[in-house]
Amino acid sequence: MTTATATATAVAIAAAAPNRPSRSVFLGVDVGTGSARAGLFDKGGKLLGSASSPIQIWKEGDCVEQSSTDIWLAICTAVKRALALADVAGEEVIGLGFAATCSLVAVDSEGQPVSVSLSGDTRRNVIVWMDHRAVKQAEKINSLNSPVLQYCGGSISPEMQPPKLLWVKENLQESWSMTWRWMDLSDWLSYRATGDDTRSMCTTVCKWTYLGHAHMQHIDEKSSRDMEMEACGWDDDFWEEIGLPDLVEGHHSKIGRSVAFPGHALGCGLTPDAAKELGLVSGIPVGTSLIDAHAGGVGVMESVPESEPKEYDDDGICRRMVLVCGTSTCHMAVSKTKLFIPGVWGPFWSAMVPEYWLTEGGQSATGALLDYIVDNHVASSHLANRAASQNISLFQMLNDLLAQLMRDTGAPFIAALTSDLHVLPDFHGNRSPIADPNAKGMICGLNLDTSERQLALQYFATVQGLAYGTRHIIEHCNNHGHKIDTLLASGGLSKNLLFIQEHADIVGCRIILPRESESVLLGAAIVGAVAAKKYSSLRGAMKALNAAGQVIYPSEDPKVKKYHDAKYRIFRQLYEQQLNYRSIMAEALC
């Protein structure tokens, strides 16, 4: 178990002048894997200040768990700290939105936590998104070939909610009987803040097999945006077929009776109790929430240079893919028509941008994999101490080492340093486009060198392996109807310029970075702005509050392209070799 400290980390971006007139400020809250963050934005989409507070996490084998009580306390700490650091009064916040990982929360009829842990610890009522306990349940569900699976890329992932729900029913019968509401974490946050358990089109469509397009066939477009609506997109046959017919009971009361677009104003706004805990004013509008990656998409997808031709805007959004790169990476693109892409989640109707179909690829471990590679190397602790003494990050130290190594060896370009080192980054399975949760990571080219430089090379080869994975996803999507030619990157890894440049060189696309690096927080704040009726639609708010920053272009050196094309062929062959090895060993054990 990792215990969170009580200390919150924070960054104040700007301090307000004394005796200023009252401002209109939007608050976005994001709960990631390791921390809760709060960000305050002005009406121009500029970050006024942000703060974070760590959250507890328990990891035992394939089981990864958290506490909703601990998460809420961390949110309260982060919000109050952000208000203080940005010198924003609670009365100035006029809209609030939440984003969170797609983790699964269990609560009873009183809203109290219900354990989802084999330990029986009642604090541990959240199955974290990365939890892979339900691999067998996912395989069972996929074997039934339900029609809803065509909207999940052809198969359901153990990271989605139905397999996890089935696991709880099969393994924790008492908890299953006690649970009154099963909720995506971001939906639970908005419920905790407002008392309204309307679910988000984003969470239900992407993680629960809710059919957004079926929903729209039953409900008038205007009412779907302005009212809470009866959930018409559940496929009852699916839940009964997989062995969870009790979730259909009570008009789906345990998984969502009503579903709304992100930004729909919930209930009567922030409840007095939640307002007191957060340091805000009761009654401020709270919008239907977003998954954290999708909030990153909302916060960045309209971040195009002002020089972009206006006529490009009509289909431009359909030529972009958003990379939200953090612990994992989500690859999100939208289209006006539904595109069925094997091994890639979706198409999801209105799950991120209303009235567009969402395609969602992903890598289950990116930042987590880089941490694993670095932290488990013998030279890591010494290098970390050196980085701390120079007041730079460990990854910046590694990037500097690689630049020095290129100079020392006379390499023609930095990528050439890894010509003998190849990484298949599927250390936590392959989410897409292969959709193999049993895939394993592979490293080819190790030796007995334990130096800091060798650590830098292993880190760099892993960065490249992740970028080859992104190239594989984009090629696969474009082969099935997309026309992606521009990437927009957000999340913690987007601040690593070596990571971004390698992606540009390997994929062959320009990468636009947003003006505001905290795009997930901005996406959550946009939900609050829409709920406050400051914008008539989510897309309108995105256009008003998104802004482009730096643009990274791929190398024009043909030698760089030739080099990466060669390494990409090796990358693709590594998985084929793994399948061969798996078959050989299965036959030997038969």
UniProtKB/TrEMBL annotation:
<dbReference type="InterPro" id="IPR018484">
    <property type="entry name" value="FGGY_N"/>
</dbReference>
<feature type="domain" description="Carbohydrate kinase FGGY C-terminal">
    <location>
        <begin position="322"/>
        <end position="532"/>
    </location>
</feature>
<feature type="domain" description="Carbohydrate kinase FGGY N-terminal">
    <location>
        <begin position="26"/>
        <end position="299"/>
    </location>
</feature>
<dbReference type="InterPro" id="IPR000577">
    <property type="entry name" value="Carb_kinase_FGGY"/>
</dbReference>
<dbReference type="InterPro" id="IPR006003">
    <property type="entry name" value="FGGY_RbtK-like"/>
</dbReference>
<dbReference type="Pfam" id="PF00370">
    <property type="entry name" value="FGGY_N"/>
</dbReference>
<dbReference type="GO" id="GO:0019321">
    <property type="term" value="P:pentose metabolic process"/>
</dbReference>
<dbReference type="GO" id="GO:0005737">
    <property type="term" value="C:cytoplasm"/>
</dbReference>
<keyword id="KW-0808">Transferase</keyword>
<keyword id="KW-0418">Kinase</keyword>
<protein>
    <recommendedName>
        <fullName>FGGY carbohydrate kinase domain-containing protein</fullName>
    </recommendedName>
</protein>
<dbReference type="Pfam" id="PF02782">
    <property type="entry name" value="FGGY_C"/>
</dbReference>
<dbReference type="GO" id="GO:0019150">
    <property type="term" value="F:D-ribulokinase activity"/>
</dbReference>
<dbReference type="InterPro" id="IPR018485">
    <property type="entry name" value="FGGY_C"/>
</dbReference>
<comment type="similarity">
    <text>Belongs to the FGGY kinase family.</text>
</comment>
<dbReference type="InterPro" id="IPR043129">
    <property type="entry name" value="ATPase_NBD"/>
</dbReference>
